[in-house]
From TrEMBL:
Protein name (record): Glyceraldehyde-3-phosphate dehydrogenase
Pathway(s) the chain acts in: Carbohydrate degradation; glycolysis; pyruvate from D-glyceraldehyde 3-phosphate: step 1/5
Domain of life: Eukaryota
Enzyme Commission identifier(s): 1.2.1.12
PANTHER family in UniProt: GLYCERALDEHYDE 3-PHOSPHATE DEHYDROGENASE (PTHR10836), GLYCERALDEHYDE-3-PHOSPHATE DEHYDROGENASE-RELATED (PTHR10836:SF76)
Organism: Trypanosoma brucei brucei (strain 927/4 GUTat10.1)
Binding site for NAD(+): R55, I56, D81, R135, S177, N378
Family: Belongs to the glyceraldehyde-3-phosphate dehydrogenase family.
Catalytic activity: D-glyceraldehyde 3-phosphate + phosphate + NAD(+) = (2R)-3-phospho-glyceroyl phosphate + NADH + H(+)
Record: residues binding D-glyceraldehyde 3-phosphate: S208, C209, T210, T240, T269, G270, R292
Presence of keyword Oxidoreductase: yes
Phylogenetic classification of the source organism: Eukaryota, Discoba, Euglenozoa, Kinetoplastea, Metakinetoplastina
Gene symbol of the encoding locus: Tb06.26G9.1050
Amino acid sequence: MSVALFFSSFLTVPYFPCICLSFCGAEFIRANQTSKRLTTNLNMTIKVGINGFGRIGRMVFQALCDDGLLGNEIDVVAVVDMNTDARYFAYQMKYDSVHGKFKHSVSTTKSKPSVAKDDTLVVNGHRILCVKAQRNPADLPWGKLGVEYVIESTGLFTVKSAAEGHLRGGARKVVISAPASGGAKTFVMGVNHNDYNPREHHVVSNASCTTNCLAPLVHVLVKEGFGISTGLMTTVHSYTATQKTVDGVSVKDWRGGRAAALNIIPSTTGAAKAVGMVIPSTQGKLTGMAFRVPTADVSVVDLTFIATRDTSIKEIDAALKRASKTYMKNILGYTDEELVSADFISDSRSSIYDSKATLQNNLPNERRFFKIVSWYDNEWGYSHRVVDLVRHMAARDRAAKL
């Protein structure tokens, strides 16, 4: 913080009768820390850094822009990747094969005259520094840049202890945009986000896109008293960047090495089991698998389950529809139209329940065996939940005066 900014932060706060211009040692440090707190209170933008500007990192950034948050509620200070050529980042943002052209102004510039290439994005007039990736997140300059919240979207630092490197680099909190291990708390917006404890949860996971689709369905079933005795989930999932365009080497997953655009590929997923982390009453009751299919975006969850009480498709359908309009609005959607996957591209909701695809077992007197189906844009919907979680954490942190 510059001396000019230091004094301006005092001058904007009333009832400071005098300012001592003589500081030394610890007194200056304490005063500087006070100044930072005052500045934070006056400027309520959330300072964010994105580690990994790949598919999800860019989608999160675009979600911030489309929702009008960039420069208003959230200030993206820096994006981190192996490449720091801002012109290439700008190109990737401008043109997207799935979601279309970027709707906002984007240009590039140099952070200082001495750098060889443009290393700063300028989006809607806001400057975002492009920072070189580091093997150890602790070596990233979050503290120097004033970053409070890091969105960890490289896919490399999903173990809590590894992601904690961002804290040592100066960040206050880390949101992992993937399932995490090693004790990181998992949150699904609309389901268990209110369990967030500002003083305990410093590295958290936003779960997977599939868990974000499935958990809202299960949450409504449990909340509305239908319950789940046991269940099997299948996600029919679009291919992702981890797959191969042509047959290639995949020693750990032989089928996963086959050409993504030419095959339906059975795969594993921990999404169903992860629901037990966010809805403890379902722990051990759900499991599932995935089929990776030749579509670039939008996936669909098929949940087959046995309820804990007698009910009907009509009753379940009504409960999900009601929830989509009330306590799960903007998280859970509802459709009774004849829609297909392309109709859900760029849908920002986590899960869109398909009323027409829901089934009840037709055995005589069977009133507990059901199948429900829900769509999700595995890129766009998930990225919006990452943004929502950061905003939720920041609000809670500030309420706790952290």
